[in-house]
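Technical note accompanying the year-one report. For the benefit of new consortium partners, we illustrate the data format agreed upon in the data management plan: each record pairs a sequence with a structure-token string. No post-processing was applied to the example shown here.
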Amino acid sequence: MQGELRIPKIAGKIGVYIILVVGAIIFVGPFLWNVYSSFKVSWEIMGKQSLQLPTVLTGVHYIELFEAIPVAQNFLNSAIVTLAVVSSNLLFSSMTGYALAKLRFFGRDFLFIIIIATLVLPFQVVFIPLYILIARGFHLANTLAGVFLPSLMGAIPIFFFRQFYTTIPTELIDASRIDGCSHFGSFFRIVLPNSKSALITIAILAGTDSWNLFLWPLVVIKDTHKFTVQLALTLLQKQAINMGWGRLLAGCALFSIPPLILVLVLQRYFMESIALTGLKR
């Protein structure tokens, strides 16, 4: 009987592993192909040998990449945008989430509903009004500030922090208030130090999202010296028709390194925070 009961369990585990392996191949396969194809000679990238490993390893495409575009400047521009978005969301979105989770004031729940309702609005709906506001209202067209300003706070980070802070015992905050802490003191001395996993999770989400911004910077930025890495790839794509696809693949591989490192290093905290968010102690 025990042997008969184990067979369905083993079959179920094997099925799960097969699904996970297939899913991993689907998601990781294109990236791995991009990486090893960037080291191929040009005539091996396309055609019958496109899926095969390179017969000769070459780094010429990376040399051509640095000659074609200002890679260091593009990295710096994207880093500025990413750091501004991440730091702002970690501070202001966390404060907003704390207020919605722990403070009682008139219209709190209605305000939270309005914030969540903005998630159903496609970006295209607010695209034109937002551009008019940035370009004519703040005069930030063709600036990096115009790129990161609309992303300094977001509904998803606010929702995430709000849900996470519901897991922190209110008694802990009340005790700090009795000891003389203000709301800001309770937040910065009690709540924020206990929010490491949530902060890291939002840093990953906001960081990868801002690093991969394309449409909004494409509209705002006109000066090529202010291009982010994603806009730099568009220049390489235009050149690929005549110059080959090698430097474009090299650019994709190189520009993927920062978010990849970020996720790999901090994935443990990401999974921990996802497991805690939405659960009440």
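Partners are asked to follow this layout when depositing records. The CA atoms of residues 119 and 156 lie 8 Å apart.
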